[in-house]
Amino acid sequence: MTDRPLLWFPQPQPASRSKLQSAPGRVSTPSHERQGARVSIKLSQLQEAFEARRAELVRAAAGVDPEQVLVIETVGAVEDFAKAVKKIEGLEWLGEIEVDELPPDEDFHDLKDPEKPLKGRLYLVLTNQQALNELLSLWRHYKDQDDPKLKFDTGLTKFRDVFCHLLDIRRWGPADRLLETGVLDVWREELNDPDLQNRPVRFEAELWYRDSVDKRAESESVVRGLVNSLQGQVITSGVIPGIRYHAVLAELPASRIQEIMDAPETELVKCDNIMFFRPVGQMTSGETPVDDYAEALPPRSEEFPGGAPVLAILDGMPYVSHQHLNGRIVLEDPDGWAEDYPASERVHGTTMASLAIHGDLGENSAALTRPVYMRPIMRPDARDFRRPRREVIPTDSLPVDLVHRSVKRMLEGEGEQPATAPSVKIVNLSIGDYSRAFMQSISPLARLLDWLSSKYGVLFIVSAGNQLEAVPLDMTLDELEQLSQSDLERKTITALLMNARSRSILSPAESINGITVGSIHFDACVDAGVANRFDPYSSALPSPVSSFGSGYRRSIKPDIVFPGGRQWYQKPYIGRQAVSLSVSGSMAPPGNKVAIPGQTASTDSTGYTRGTSNATALISRAAVHCYETLSGVIDATATAGYDDSYTAPLIKAMLAHGCSWGSIGSRLVDIISEQQSIKNPVSFASRWIGYGLPDIGRVLECTEQRATILGFGELSDAQAHLFRMPLPPSLSSVREWRRLTVTLAWFSPIQPSNQKYRCASMWFEANNPVANQRREAASGNSGWQAVRRGTLQHEIFEGDWAQPFVDGDSLVLKINCRKEAAAIDSPVPYGLVVSFEVREGVQLPIYQEIRDKIRIQPAVPVRQGPII
Length: 868
Fold this sequence. Notes:
Elements: E1 7-8, E2 13-16, E3 27-28, H1 32-60, E4 68-75, H2 81-85, E5 92-102, E6 109-110, E7 118-127, H3 129-144, H4 157-165, E8 166-171, H5 174-178, H6 183-192, E9 201-207, H7 213-229, E10 233-240, E11 245-252, H8 254-262, H9 267-270, E12 274-279, E13 283-284, E14 295-296, E15 311-315, E16 329-331, H10 348-358, E17 372-376, E18 379-380, E19 391-392, H11 399-411, E20 426-429, E21 432-433, H12 444-456, E22 459-463, E23 471-472, H13 477-481, H14 485-498, E24 515-520, E25 533-534, E26 560-563, E27 569-570, E28 580-583, E29 592-595, E30 605-609, H15 612-637, H16 647-657, E31 659-660, H17 662-672, H18 681-689, E32 693-694, E33 706-715, E34 719-726, E35 738-746, E36 760-767, E37 773-776, H19 783-786, E38 792-799, E39 810-819, E40 828-838, H20 846-855
Parallel strand pairs: 1-33, 15-17, 15-20, 16-17, 20-22, 22-24, 24-26
Antiparallel strand pairs: 2-34, 3-6, 4-7, 4-8, 5-7, 9-11, 9-12, 10-11, 13-21, 14-30, 18-19, 23-28, 25-27, 27-28, 29-30, 31-32, 33-40, 34-39, 35-38, 35-40, 36-39, 37-38
Helix pairs in contact: 1-3, 6-8, 10-15, 11-12, 15-16, 17-18
């Protein structure tokens, strides 16, 4: 136990929730007459398209009133439109999507800035002919009246608001199902690969989720019939009501896929039961290095771990016979994959386990004292003819279904079998979907992680994803070789910034409840220069392979960054043409030193790897250290009122609490500021480094000059808690630099069919007279808004003036909660971490004074439940 352990806040006081202020911009809309004319044309086109498709379907199934999906696009949002939709028989609400950057025109534009892109919504509604007729009747009622604000019948007034802001209305068609998922590119690649072109092509068809069990069964039956009619088959299907997910995994002969590529207007592609077609086999850890580099490392004399695992890794199969992993992993292989998973190809799971257990082997850190639970969800790709093959989620599984079953088996149990690792509080997921870069809609896998974290109280730590494409530089090789290392760094960063839109975080990194981790270009390796490779940087900056955010609804993503190894590049060989920097995938240094199986499956081989997967595994290791610290503090203080539901939110807050931008942020903002096209360099930097680089040691113990205090509670809509931190008397009227750091974390329930998605919005406010200058809130001047959009709020405040206060004065923190996407069914647990400090070496007993004042305050109220 440290001499200065973390402290606990006393009982928070109930309070009324603060009101949020907002000043949305005003948008010019068309006149009633103009809107009537333009929308009437669109509705006529919709009616014709609906009738044409209906005629096709009726011929195929006489006596059936077919249902079709409508896309209703508005400028701005019409809240609670779903309630109005449910008032019309035959209409079924499917969901809504937020749209950014709608181009302004003479009909719709911002009144203050006519050139400013607008925001909008896509409302997705299932309708039959009867319901469409009712919708058209409502439109005629709106169009024909002189007063556009005249009320509709009870419950239908939202249709009036939609008509006023309507931009477009159309059917959901083949282009929607195919174009934005990357499936056509993957199909084209497979059809052109001579080793794959004669094999059946597998794909996922994500269906519109229907509330009715019978409707879901009917929908799946229709899709199965269409697949069978094309000489294909459905491999499996999955339904998860908690995230409104329904999908089938199917395969078709290559010739049939080619027909779809040539003429997409086939019955399968036009099927109104299908929302998206998605490729399979793209959920991977990235490319596996194929060189034979390996170093032997002598065994380390450390005790084997004990106790129950708190960290789980869902990844590839680890090489458990490796001397650095043997006896340290609880391996769960319920599907028996080990039998045909060669030891030499157990690369990624082995490296992730090595980093989580030992850290970077180059740092010679102590191993975790608990075993790590591992469940393989990736296997060698049967379509890859290299050795070792890349590891992917197998093409005979739906990724969402596989992850769901894995977590449920671990934490709840499966069938008659009890949970295999109910003690787990942290889950490492260092994989990403290379066909699904985050744009605007949250992916099914991210929805799953959010739902599971809220349901089970477990923290998912997710990699932001690696971008392995070449980096184009606007210069020749000769010009490149003339650059100083500092100028090369600046040119590389600039090239990455200009391509940021195509280097977005990969699903499921947009998860709002998880911690998303980016990579910093740093490691403990001594340089080992190779003639044909070079370092594009001169300092520790975001790795050139680390993906850009933001997250859902412009929330902070990635949340944090951590050293994931230095990524060197291959030296170009073309002298007179513009060059591109290509990733060097070697196991040779530099990078994080890790255990590897090597090509001969030796038990002592090590190599060097790099990327966001590494950073994620290292943060997962840090999360275990946070757990151990938290466990020790609870045991030592016998904290009343604490139960297991607060553990994961507190770990989440602890991981981010030591974050700051430091020199990384300063250097990055300096380079970004040179780009005239980027209006807010600080905000743009946050899309790459989030809250910054965490100093984990700061949150594991206190110092004489720094006190760190933990708090917890649970809140429902319109509730708030007040925490009081005693101010140290020795600082009164003293002109001395001081810093206040506040981190709040929770797991929000979700509502997948609502664009707001997050059910529980929480935020803190600080009545802070002693350090009230906001130093770091990611995204610059608007950072106070950005940090409130997710489920992790982290801010740093500073001051240095002589502020008088009397003995007994406190700094008051208010934690607020309000419902957002839907009602909060049960109180939501949260974790709070607060640090107050002065400069190191200043002779002020900050820790002792705060500790002594807290001890005489009322204790935390008792709440029954298990403790750690």
